[in-house]
Amino acid sequence: MRLILLGAPGAGKGTVAKLLTQIDGSVQISTGDILRGAVQAGTALGKKADAYMKAGDLVPDELIMDIMENRLQEPDCTKGFLLDGFPRTIPQAEALKILLGKLNIQLDVVANIIVPREEIILRLTTRRTCSNTDCQAIYNVRSHPPKAEGICDKCGSPIMQRADETEDVISKRLDTYNEKTAPLIAFYEKQGLLLNIDTPTTDGVVNAITARIAGD
Ligand code: AP5
Questions:
Q1: Considering only CA atoms, which residue is closest to atom 54 of ligand 1?
Q2: How far is the CA of 58 from the centre of ligand 1 (A)?
Q3: Atom 57, ligand 1: which residue's CA is nearest?
Q4: Do 178 and 10 touch, CB atoms closer than 8 A?
Q5: Distance between CA 54 and CA 142 in Å, rounded?
Q6: Is 100 helix (H, G, I), strand (E, B) or coil?
Q7: Cβ atoms within 10 A of the Cβ of 203, count?
Q8: Tens digit of pLDDT for each residue in 166-213?
Q9: What is the DSSP secondary structure assignment for residue 140, as one 8-state letter?
Q10: Is 173 a catalytic residue?
Q11: Using 50, 70 and 90 to split pLDDT, how confident is the model at 59?
Q12: 112: Cβ below 6 Å to ligand 1?
């Protein structure tokens, strides 16, 4: 699979990506996870990204394109990739188009996961994430709690709330999404790549994507 997962913060992109990778070995590439890992490790990239992320703003396009130009050329991407949280602006989408053209890679689909705002706020205030940057498993105290309270099922590390999960920052991230990322829906619709999905269940989203890729 070579696909882009579009959708507001909390729409379930990361949850769906993790399930899709189990189908055919495609890799999940989450710019959010890469940036959080860099912040936690205190790298130069992390120091530049930290304040933007905490405020619910987007990290500048140049930093993101530097990451993605390298990441998409790593050997594991030959099996396929799921872009989770990238592109997020029209300039990123245009730069990605040029990059994929250079690498001779064709996208299968851009899946736009549609979730109402009230449900998103509920999901994000109840989400928990594994603190281990190599794992970053996603939980939800309401709909998908870990087996042992506060502990990741997969790696045993503590689970936590992200720094950008306060109600104020969530609201800012949703506004940023509407202003800067939502225009990508029309961008990909024009290219005939868009698949709108508004089913409320994770399985429903996964099934809609796999059916489209299988050509059903
Ligand atoms: P990023 O990490 O990409 O965050 P996001 O897009 O805001 O998305 P989230 O990770 O919050 O949500 P998600 O859609 O993956 O939902 P999830 O599966 O976790 O970005 C963070 C920040 O990094 C940005 O604000 C920006 O600063 C920076 N950044 C990243 N990429 C960038 C870029 N390209 N350019 C510039 N800046 C960038 O699900 C949410 C919750 O809901 C979970 O608890 C889950 O268990 C639950 N859930 C999921 N599906 C369902 C369902 N069907 N029913 C019930 N609950 C569900």
A1: 201
A2: 13
A3: 12
A4: no
A5: 24
A6: helix
A7: 10
A8: 989 999 999 999 999 999 999 999 999 999 999 989 999 999 999 999
A9: E
A10: yes
A11: very high
A12: no
Query: Could you tell me the pLDDT band of residue 163, with boundaries at 50, 70 and 90?
Result: confident
> E-strand spans in the chain?
2-7, 27-30, 81-84, 109-113, 127-130, 138-140, 159-160, 194-197
Among 123, 118, 85, CA closest to 7: 85
Question: Is 139:146 a contact under the CB 8 Å cutoff?
Answer: yes
Alpha helices (runs of H) in the chain, residue ranges in sequence order: 13-24, 31-41, 44-55, 61-71, 90-102, 117-125, 167-176, 183-190, 202-214
pTM above 0.90, yes or no: yes
Say how far apart CA 145 and CA 155 lie, in whole Å: 15
Q: Please indicate whether residue 162 is annotated as part of the active site.
A: yes
Average pLDDT (78-91) is 97
